[in-house]
Amino acid sequence: MKSIMPLAMKLHVGPTVNVLIALRDLHFDPRIWDKPNDFNPERFIDERGTLKNIEHLYPFGLGRRRCPGDALAKSFIFIIFVGIVQKYKICLSNGTLPSAEPVFGLISAPNAFSANFIPRKQTL
């Protein structure tokens, strides 16, 4: 999805007009991100290992329609993910990395893939 008019153009948007932000285009813009199509989680972590506050990242939307549960969702995802990684070693079922190409629709989603969750040995 591309912009249909330059961003510098002055335009009046009436109160009944819906404006949609193409977040995927923003998140994959090569003017903002180095190699935007490469899977690189390190781009979000600073040299101390803490999460960067990135100005151009809007996973929960913008404006009045922004997800009201974004802080809760981030905390929940972190707790669940850490719990899974602590308890299981995650391996690919067939040894092949899944495709990074999303399935497009109203929202985008990753392609399906299989993984094995092998319980870690519990040490006390």
Describe the structure.
With about 120 residues, the protein is α+β, with helices and mostly antiparallel strands. It folds into two domains: about 1-70, no CATH class; about 70-124, no CATH class. The protein is about 20% helix and about 10% strand. It has helices at about 25, 70-85; strands spanning about 90, 115-120. A two-stranded antiparallel ribbon has the order 1-2. The radius of gyration is 19 Å and the shape is elongated.
What's a quick, concise take on this entry?
The protein is α+β, with helices and mostly antiparallel strands and 124 residues long. 19% of the residues lie in helices and 8% in strands. InterPro entries: Cyt_P450, Cyt_P450_CS, Cyt_P450_E_grp-I, Cyt_P450_sf.
Give, in spatial order, the strands making up the sheet with the most strands: 1-2
- Cα-to-Cα separation, first versus last residue: 53 Å
Mean pLDDT: 82
Provide the gyration radius in Å: 19 Å
How helical, in percent, are the residues?
10-25%
Q: What is the structural class?
A: alpha+beta
Give the amount of beta strand, in percent: 5-15%
- Note the main sheet: 2 strands, antiparallel
Order of helices and strands: HHEE
DSSP strand count: 2
Low-confidence regions: none
How many domain units?
2
Discrete helix count: 2
Coarse morphology: elongated
GO molecular function: heme binding; iron ion binding; monooxygenase activity; oxidoreductase activity, acting on paired donors, with incorporation or reduction of molecular oxygen
Pfam families: p450 (PF00067)
Keywords: Heme, Iron, Metal-binding, Monooxygenase, Oxidoreductase
InterPro entries: Cyt_P450, Cyt_P450_CS, Cyt_P450_E_grp-I, Cyt_P450_sf
